[in-house]
């Protein structure tokens, strides 16, 4: 259910928090830690906090503003159903509804689920058989645990989890706007993210490097380490950029949009807060003032982009950050200094000198605040994303909005317990994945329950999983684990959808440059992600817009998807390749073909009914046509 | 639980019946799921997102054909006659106008220009009963001038193509928002379930690419579908040759196997929806082929639209206009037609006449024929036609007899759909630089178009990332332009 602020709050007259109030608060003290007494406290404890004035002390009961509580998992009341602590939470939640505790999934279901959820790819028939044998021999739990470890160690894990983060970080290989120029070095950031997940980089470090990797580069650091830190700042570069704005004397607008994007994306990605609303006015629901948007923006004021898809500070004459009336770069108002959310800390931020003396230290200060154990958002936001990635339905159904207009957590205690465990575990994503996938909650059979974080329904493959699966089962998937993106061969009419392609430049960034046929079978993660021209099969299956942070993908069911999967060029190719593979394995017998088609696509034997239907079909039609049908099956597209 | 599906099988039958037609989106289990995220406008059934819906109030128009002249056609060479500019040809920009521009938000529209005014090289005449001035560029549209309602005082917030074009389409200069066509189908559904509700037609797309006609944060069901004006009308509509003879049998086998799979998963509407989507796709093959069959039109009409014109580009734009008429006639809600046959469009930075003269020739006859045809068939009453670019052009000269972009004041026109014919709204200054009488922001235009469709812009919203997004902005501050209707 959606939590809405009570009407009385919504009807408060809009109060614009005077920036001078904030600045006065900041000026009242010299911003030195040795004089803590002068500092203004948070809005709960200190009446001088300007937010108290702006919002009349109301709206402060927002759940996500409260510290993460220490939680002890409840007693096991599920009579043996619960395997891990998580299950004790979910069992209690289900029993209080009251909803039945779901049964456990069978071996095949669990294996398919683990493969898709952890690597984004289906198991091969052999991998499925190995797992079934292990489960029969040593028990399902042990086999599933071993498989989880194996998949977590596979490079495919990082490739799949990177997609989660790249959606959140609005990753793209191009600028957007008129020319939508190719960013030839952007892939280095994508590879950094893949590697971060594969190396199980602690989440705090992952955040800090993206926001301020360059500021961490110390003079004596090995070059390899320094290069990785600088690459991480690609996060700051991912947003759209209007490269032709200067031609029309609108560079001010382009820079203001870039800074707004950095502020808003950072708010959504790490804090689950919508800082976009307060770009123009005090937030309608949450205790965020317009000044808060610009105080956050000021952390990025010195950012300059470099040619290699990285960012750094230019500390000579850092531009003063000003509040913009209605967010319009043409209407500048009062100046602000860097500061955190004033509801918690209205003072100007302390900005210690960073290891990199040539940088301002502003972004590092912001990263330290975001990753500090006192910050109530950061860990909750990330464990909610991981839960969603594995269970489809997150605990907070609005993963980029933990505010009053967003949803409240379905089980606040579980959310806080997970956040606490994540912190105690050093921000290890793999440990959290292991923790969630090891639960009976994760290993339940799917059914048709109400939408809930604790229950599973069959889940349709994402656009990337679908395309990758078609390639994988038909043997067309080509090895690629890093490097420059692959440009698919698109029909001319789609390339013309962006007129910029008709006007290539000498730097070769405005055209469309199809990769050789041998590279076309790369995983979808490695396909070029332009802003203004999208790969049709991915777009049809709900690829999100990459202009802004995307927390949760839409799952639509529309007729063009059927047309794409029946008649599109990838299906023609995949069906033919699969048929060839089947012939190789099963010779010329239709019964053998049917068994092989089922084994390769669904990792199981056909039932008698299925066998009969397929054999009747093969009397009139080709093996390739049967393969095409198999690759269109709901069972192929959905994971139980 | 969704109450519609509480019982297993009868509900499924009912469900499949409800899907009935439904070209585009069938059942959207995903949308059901999304209801947790998004408060939906009352009356929108997530299981039938394209089902026709009752507007908020009496609609003047049922459909929209938006003719978008990519690149920015020049008002002072087409529909905004400026005799003072003609007199001041070759002179510097008058101080009063420069001061006025510098004082406002459009000071940059003189950037990149010479300080030398460029009079229109075209001859102007008054036309029709209304006596409207139209330049010689559009002799055939001029014959229809009494049907048109001009707004001469449009303003947008960027002087660059993509941001301004995004704004004309989505209300925002940044990419990522939902376009007018997506909002319209979200608000009203569509009237023919076997065809897409929101169609785009182009040879080359608008500057700024697909972000212009994007569904943005709206569910993917409200994506635009590109139709072709020649050959197979939709990409991947027909099976490749090797699969064509077996298509029906393949669909039957697929259905059999999917129903088998479904047996142990009763009540999962998303699986049912996907089964139904294949039948819809099959039906759409014939519906789209039929709709795309321009050859069935009478010879005289094809000639009128320019399908026999000596210039291929006139023929190409004529096919798009004729196809647009066939689509709205068959119940398609929103057709966006782009005039963009090449990399430049109407972007006449140099040698205005070499750019505008041929482009006018390619579009004049088809657009005029569309207006005439809609009128004669009675469709004009319920079809709103809009003609616009992303901005206009400067009265100051740029480079060699060219004009730069101008977002400070530009002209568009509307026709049909209950708008007041033969009317002019607002005005630019004497040389056509800046809207001085009744400047109209893009949000007001959008509120007005939605109003014509019977939709209240302030209640048509979608919750996205904690914001109530509207076509007219989060604040929903926009005014309907009353003169458009009365």
Account of the protein in words:
The complex is a heterodimer of chains A (640) and B (486). Chain A is an all-alpha fold. Chain A is built from 27 helices and six strands. Chain A has a two-stranded antiparallel sheet. In chain A, strands 3-4 form a two-stranded antiparallel sheet. A two-stranded antiparallel ribbon of chain A has the order 5-6. In chain A, a hairpin with a 7-residue loop joins strand 3 (321-324) and strand 4. In chain A, helix 16 (378-391) packs across helix 18 (429-437), helix 22 crosses helix 23 and helix 24 (590-602) packs across helix 25. The longest helix of chain A has 21 residues, at 251-271. The model of chain A is unreliable at 1-33 (pLDDT under 50). Chain B is an alpha/beta fold. Helices cover 32% and strands 16% of the residues of chain B. In chain B, the strands form five sheets. In chain B, strands 1, 4, 5, 6, 7, 8, 11, 12 and 15 form a nine-stranded mixed beta sheet that branches. A two-stranded antiparallel sheet of chain B has the order 2-3. Chain B has a two-stranded antiparallel sheet with strand order 9-10. In chain B, a hairpin with a 3-residue loop joins strand 9 (392-398) and strand 10 (402-406). At the A-B interface, helix 13, helix 22, helix 25, helix 26 and helix 27 of A face helix 2, helix 6, strand 6, helix 8 and helix 9 of B.
Give me the secondary-structure topology.
The complex is a heterodimer of chains A (640) and B (486).
Chain A: H1 7-10, H2 19-27, H3 50-54, H4 85-95, H5 107-119, H6 125-138, H7 140-153, H8 155-168, H9 187-198, H10 203-212, H11 223-232, H12 234-237, H13 251-271, H14 290-297, E1 303-305, E2 311-313, E3 321-324, E4 332-336, H15 362-371, H16 378-391, H17 412-424, H18 429-437, E5 459-460, H19 463-474, H20 492-495, H21 536-540, H22 559-567, H23 569-586, H24 590-602, H25 608-620, H26 623-630, H27 634-637, E6 638-639
Antiparallel strand pairs in A: 1-2, 3-4, 5-6
Helix pairs in contact in A: 5-6, 5-7, 6-7, 8-9, 10-11, 10-15, 13-14, 16-17, 16-18, 19-23, 22-23, 23-24, 23-26, 24-25, 24-26
Chain B: H1 9-19, H2 29-34, E1 63-69, H3 83-87, H4 95-103, E2 124-127, E3 132-135, H5 139-143, E4 148-155, H6 161-170, H7 180-188, E5 198-201, E6 225-226, H8 247-263, H9 269-291, H10 299-304, H11 312-329, E7 334-339, H12 352-376, E8 383-388, E9 392-398, E10 402-406, E11 410-416, E12 423-425, E13 427-428, E14 435-437, E15 440-441, H13 442-452, E16 461-464, E17 467-470
Parallel strand pairs in B: 1-7, 1-8, 4-12, 4-15, 5-6, 5-7
Antiparallel strand pairs in B: 2-3, 4-11, 8-11, 9-10, 13-14, 16-17
